[in-house]
């Protein structure tokens, strides 16, 4: 049993192609990667919304704004 | 060099390793920037020099004895055979192949590639102990880690005939355990003995953040480490070799790139996996750290480290998910260890390198289960058990000797800077001289105006 399909290297490399684990499961891996990517953007935007809401509610005042502007 | 093909292969291989050495220098530029950026301004020149002097202290000792260790200890000794005196003789500093020799175009560049790994291993420890370890103590620890401990672990588990590969089927192609876990273990041991920086923990044990003097410099330093890491990956491979040259089970006439174990891979394969592991780490740690720049950059590095053990074989999406998940575990462990055991790791080195390296080796044992560890007959296959035991050996080989050595240095009063110096700042004297010189020249200019 070998996850990569080879249990030894007694092979002619001219006849060897893929050597990664779980060949045949590429479709599942691609779906998982797509899902990760999309979920990442959703989570990131939600995080960003929370951060901005907090800055506005706790951080904003004319004085703080002027201080930030002077700090450059 | 015999015929033209031999000559071309030799010259190509020589140039290949030379280029990797140049790239790996960027890792050290990056480490210097990163450590200086994390330190407080009153300590930053000492911090710079502490990391910089890793280069010559390890450079000379790796020439004198470190390189010899790699070949001498492959059997343990006493596990798969005795000390390998005969083969290792060529690596002794008085050997004629450890100098310009027209019959040997490879030793210098191969030695240098390993030297760069030695510098990296020691520099990993350097970041965690900033602002309170005496430079002299650190340089002694650096020589222990960089010119002995890591190269011993490489002899065991990162050599085509190393006993860990033969007996355990240990597989760690890009050094998750061999460099990173051992360095993380060494750093943790040093931190336990050294203690935290003054002010790091409140009276009730709550950790305080000690902000970096220049967070921008820190992140660009890590970005340079990413760049240099490409050289590290390329240097971990044998660029091209024939089946006859390998002398193992591989048949046919197809030349190939291989890992250090002489198992087939390609630069193309590791390029896919390096990049996807980096992406996974950056994406995942960005979210878990709420977009913290330092942790996001560190997360990318941690992702590469976690996937490194099997990046010769993984599918890129497997490398991506390993690069994403393992750094998140390490991030949580960093803060858990900090809170629970009062460990002040200034840069998260134990997490990024130690925990990610350890877990990365274990993951490779599962994902590559049953794959051949070697092209030579009679070697154990890769397995979860073999890689787990290997990971423990790697971490312990850094942790235990450094714990003992740091305690000895501490007992001799050599480990930690005096409390007064820590509060004044390690650069106090040079900074005072600087201010005096500035005042003097300014006064002179005003007098002349």
Itemize the secondary structure elements and their pairings:
The complex is a heterodimer of chains A (72) and B (449).
Chain A: H1 26-59, H2 62-71
Chain B: H1 4-38, H2 44-52, H3 54-72, H4 85-88, H5 107-128, H6 135-157, H7 163-168, H8 176-194, H9 215-236, E1 238-241, H10 243-246, E2 256-258, E3 264-265, H11 267-288, H12 293-308, H13 316-341, H14 349-367, H15 384-411, H16 419-424, H17 428-448
Antiparallel strand pairs in B: 1-2, 2-3
Textual characterization of the structure:
The complex is a heterodimer of chains A (72) and B (449). Chain A is mainly α. Chain A has a domain at 24-71. Chain A contains two helices and no strands. Chain A has helices at 26-59, 62-71. Chain A is rod-shaped. The relative contact order of chain A is 0.07. Chain B is mainly alpha-helical. Chain B has a single domain (4-417), classed as Ammonium transporter fold (Orthogonal Bundle), CATH 1.10.3430.10. Chain B contains 17 helices and three strands. A three-stranded antiparallel β-sheet of chain B has the order 1-2-3. In chain B, β2 and β3 form a beta hairpin. In chain B, α1 (4-38) runs parallel beside α5 (107-128), α1 (4-38) packs antiparallel against α9 (215-236) and α6 runs antiparallel to α8 (176-194). The model of chain B has no long low-confidence stretch (mean pLDDT 97).
């Amino acid at each position: 049993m070998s996850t990569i399909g080879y249990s030894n290297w007694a092979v002619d490399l001219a006849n060897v192609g893929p050597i990664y684990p779980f060949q045949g499961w590429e479709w599942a891996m691609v779906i998982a990667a797509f899902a990760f990517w999309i979920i990442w953007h959703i989570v990131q935007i939600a995080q960003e919304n929370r951060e901005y809401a907090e800055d506005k509610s706790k951080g904003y005042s004319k004085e703080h704004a002027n201080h930030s502007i002077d700090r450059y | 060099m015999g015929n033209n093909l031999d000559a071309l292969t030799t010259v190509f291989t020589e140039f290949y390793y030379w280029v990797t050495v140049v790239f790996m220098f960027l890792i050290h530029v990056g480490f210097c920037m990163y450590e200086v950026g994390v330190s407080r301004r009153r300590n930053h020149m000492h911090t710079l020099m502490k990391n910089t002097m890793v280069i010559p202290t390890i450079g000379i000792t790796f020439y004198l004895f470190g390189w010899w260790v790699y070949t001498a200890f492959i059997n343990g000794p006493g596990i798969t055979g005795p000390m390998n005196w005969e083969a290792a003789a060529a690596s002794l500093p008085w050997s004629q192949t450890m100098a310009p020799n027209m019959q040997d175009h490879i030793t210098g560049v191969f030695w240098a590639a390993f030297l760069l790994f030695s510098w990296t291993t020691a520099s990993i420890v350097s970041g965690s102990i900033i602002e309170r370890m005496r430079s002299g103590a650190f340089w002694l620890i650096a020589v222990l880690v960089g010119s002995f401990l890591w190269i011993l672990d490489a002899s065991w588990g990162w050599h085509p005939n190393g006993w860990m590969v033969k007996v355990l089927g240990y597989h760690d192609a890009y050094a998750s355990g061999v460099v990173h876990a051992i360095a993380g273990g060494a750093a943790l041991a040093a931190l336990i003995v050294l203690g935290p920086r003054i002010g790091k923990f409140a009276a009730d044990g709550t950790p305080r953040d000690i902000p970096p003097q220049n967070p921008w410099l820190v992140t660009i330093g890590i970005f340079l480490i990413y760049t240099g890491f490409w050289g590290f990956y390329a240097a971990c491979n044998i660029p091209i070799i024939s089946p006859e040259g390998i002398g193992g089970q591989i048949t046919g006439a197809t030349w190939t790139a291989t890992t250090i174990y002489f198992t087939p891979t390609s630069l193309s394969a590791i390029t896919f996996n390096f990049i996807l592991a980096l992406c996974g780490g950056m994406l995942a740690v960005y979210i878990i750290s709420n977009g913290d720049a330092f942790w996001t950059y560190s997360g990318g590095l941690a992702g590469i480290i976690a996937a490194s053990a099997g990046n010769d074989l993984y599918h890129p999406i497997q490398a991506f998910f390993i690069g994403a998940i393992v750094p998140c575990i390490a991030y949580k462990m960093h803060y858990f260890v900090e809170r629970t055991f009062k460990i002040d790791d200034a840069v998260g080195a134990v997490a990024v390198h130690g925990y990610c390296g350890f877990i990365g080796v274990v993951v490779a044992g599962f994902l590559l289960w049953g794959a051949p560890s070697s092209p030579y007959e009679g070697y154990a296959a890769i397995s979860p058990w073999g890689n787990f035991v290997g990971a423990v050996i790697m971490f312990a080989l850094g942790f235990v000797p450094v714990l003992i050595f740091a305690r000895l240095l501490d007992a001799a009063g050599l480990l930690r800077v005096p409390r007064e110096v820590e509060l004044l700042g390690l650069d106090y004297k040079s900074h005072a001289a600087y201010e005096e010189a500035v005042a003097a020249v300014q006064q002179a200019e005003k007098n002349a105006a």
